[in-house]
Amino acid sequence: MVQQSSKIWFDGKFVDWADAKVHVLTHTLHYGAGVFEGIRAYECKNGKSAIFRLKEHMRRLLDSAHILNLKVPYSQEELNKAAVETMQVNGMKNGYLRPLVFVGAGVMGVYPGDNPIQTIIAAWPWGAYLGKDALEKGIRIKTSSFSRHHVNVMMTKAKVCGNYVNSVLAKQEAVAEGFDECMMLDSHGFVSEGSGENIYIVRDGKIKTPPLNSVLPGITRNSLLVLAKDLGYEIVEQNFTRDEVYVADEVFFSGTAAELTPIREVDHRQIGEGSAGPVTKKLQQEFFKIVAGENEKYADWLYYYEV
Predict the structure, then answer these.
(1) Among 8, 61, 257, 298, which residue has the fewest nearby CB atoms (within 10 Å)?
(2) CA 257, CA 220: separation in Å to the nearest integer?
């Protein structure tokens, strides 16, 4: 269950959590033409709080809306400000932010006509997405029977609400079969990503991740690739198959919700030593230093605010 906060920013003003409602004929509810983001805020060691890569997330939100031809009535700066105010009005030093742009009620049918474009930002406390022990012990995943979107079937560079039906089906299948998550293949049979995470393999100290073909350009992905390069690791963005995953020394996921989660087993095959490997641990350690404000080199990734 989502732990309720006090207020939600809704079309430019704050309303009580319980009053943030829409009509049952809201267009996006029926047809999925909305866009959203997931953003984390962290309490830092300096006593302040910071939203991680807020500007990049809000830019991607607006890019996603542009791809869907949704005319968002707010600028990026206005959305940045609203996100900060949402954390402040709820007294939250850390937590999860969910901006959503959607087509409101009006015309029904596939073409939305002049229906209003509405925007909300909600926030709530949220811990480890894949469970408390996942960040340390790693998780078990399976290859999904559902393929990731073809690039000309769905807009894969937009974080579109309707795209995630694909993820819901894949995640349901994995959980029903006793796994924590899934690994999805693209329409050509290459490894793509998880249901909501980017994926990486490590072999002989080299990090490999799928290129941005059918993959959403993850902001945490970008952060980790920059960090890994700065730490001296060789990075390869290249297609690979599931059997290459099986024989990797390490496998891990990244994402705003998943942060950096090691994978200990894929399709009943143990990965490496069956726990987080040294490269994964090092990246985890340095990533959490960054979000805690302990590495000034990446200070521009943090959008500070006070509660």
Answers:
(1) 257
(2) 10
Q: Which residues contact 151 (CB under 8 A, 6 or more apart)?
A: 213, 214
Looking up tokens 């404000």 gives 293
Instruction: Considering the candidates 7, 93, 142, 159, report the single residue annotated as catalytic.
Output: 159
Report strand pairing: 198-203 vs 7-10: unpaired
* Max Cα-Cα span within the chain: 57
Q: Parallel, antiparallel, or unpaired for β 235-237 and 250-255?
A: unpaired
| Report field, pTM of the whole predicted structure over 0.90 | yes
Q: pLDDT tens digits, residue range 27-37?
A: 999 999 999 99
Respond yes or no: is residue 159 known to be catalytic.
yes
Which of 22-26, 47-51, 129-133, 292-296 shows the lowest per-residue confidence on average (mean pLDDT)?
129-133
